Amino acid sequence: MSQSDRIVITGVGLTAPNGDTPEVFRQRLLAGISGVTTIETRFMGRVLAGVCQFDELKYQGRKDRRRGTRAGSIAIYCAHQALERGGVELGGIDVSRVGTYVGITEHGTVETENEIDAIRQYDYDTKYWSHHHNPRTVANNPAGEVTVNLGLRGPHYTIGAACAAGNAGLIQGAQMLRLGEVDLALAGGVSEAIHSFGIFASFASQNALAWDDDPAQASRPFDVNRKGIVVSEGGCLFVLERLGDAKRRGATIIGEVVGYAMNSDANDPVLPDAERVAACMAAAIQRAGIAPDDVDIVSTHATATELGDPQEAKALRSVFSDCRNVYVNNTKSFIGHAMGAAGALELAGNLGSLEDGVVHPTINVTEVDPDCAVRNLVVDQPHEIGRVEYILNNSFGMLGINSAVVIKRYDG
Description:
By secondary structure, this protein is α/β, with parallel strands linked by helices. It has two domains: 7-248, 3-Layer(aba) Sandwich (Peroxisomal Thiolase, Chain A, domain 1); 260-408, Peroxisomal Thiolase, Chain A, domain 1 (3-Layer(aba) Sandwich), CATH 3.40.47. Helices cover 32% and strands 22% of the residues. The strands form three sheets. Strands 5-4-6-8-1-9-15-14-10-11 form a ten-stranded mixed sheet, with helices on both faces. A three-stranded mixed sheet has the order 2-3-7. Strands 12-13 form a two-stranded antiparallel ribbon. Strand 14 (390-397) and strand 15 form a beta hairpin. Helix 7 (165-178) crosses helix 13 (342-351) and helix 10 packs across helix 11. The chain is globular. The model has no long low-confidence stretch (mean pLDDT 97).
C-alpha cells in the first residue's frame, strides 16, 4: 500500500464524563474511575447521566456559545484540542483542504424541546421562538460550528449513523483522504444526548434506562444484573492524515487506520443481529489484511441492555472462537453510552494500549451472564498483555447499522 493510501491518526481531542484530555481519560479508565452522576431532566426528575465538565468558553466567546448548541460546543472543543495535540498550525496549511466529518446519533431535538418549553410561558406565541433555531437544528450543525469557529473551508458534514456514528465519522475521514478530496480530516463523533428529555423518556418506555443508587455502578455491560443504558454526552475528534503528509511535517503518529467496515442488519429496529455484527467485524479484519487471532484488543459496543449484549457476545464468540490471545473490554461501564460519540471515545480510550501494552478493564461486572460469556473479558483490574499491535473497535446502532474499525501500531 502506498503512503497516499495509508491513513494515520496524528491528534486526538476529546471530552468524556470522566476526563477532558486523552491522558486523563486513559488514567481514569486504568484506575477504574466512573464519570456517571445524577442530573435533573424536565418531566422526569432525577436520572443518571454521563456529564462532561470541559470549559465551553475556552475556544468560544459567550455570544457565540449562546447562538450555538451544546453539540457544537463539544465539537469545537474537541477540534481545537485535536489540532493542538497533533501539532497542526492552521496558518501554515490550506484550510480549504481540511475536511470536518462528525458522527451524530441525532441532532436538533434538544434545541426544539428547549424552544417549545420556553414558549409555553407565552401561550405558545411563536414570536418568542428563537431566530437561531434553524441554524441550531440543521443536521450539519456540529461540524458546521467547527468550521465557522476555526475558519476551515473544506467540506464539512455530519454522518447520521445512530450509535455507530463515532466510527462512521472516522471512516468517512479516512475515505476522503484516500480519494484525495482533502489533505487533513477532523473526524469522529459528538453527542449532546443528556439534554433531551425525549431520549431519556424513550429508553424508559422501553424499560432500557438504567438506575442505581450508586451512579458509578449503574452501567454494567455483560453482567447478569445489568440494568440498561446510562445516557451520556461527550465527543472525540481525530486528526487524520495520509502517512506521507504526516511524515513530511514530522507529526507524531498515534496509530494507523488499517481496516474498517459498515453493514446493515435489515432486521429489527433496535435488536442487533449477531450474524451481521460478526460479518462486520470479519470484513474489517479482512480489509486490515490480518487474521482474527492477530487482534490484541476488542473494544466492545455493549450497552448493558438485556437483549443487546448477548448478541454482541455471540458475534464475538463466532469471529474469535479459536483465538486464545484476544482480550475484550468495554468503556461504557465507565462513562455510559455517549451515543454518536461512543465509538470515537471508546477507541480513544484504548489507543493508549499501543504504548503501554495494558488493556483497561470493564467495571461493574460481578457475575458474567452466561449468555454474554466471552473469552478474556478483562474485568475490574487492568491487564498487561505486552506489545499491542491491533485494536478492533466495535460500534453499532438502531435500525441495524454496524461498524468496526481496526487500528494498528505504527512502527515507522
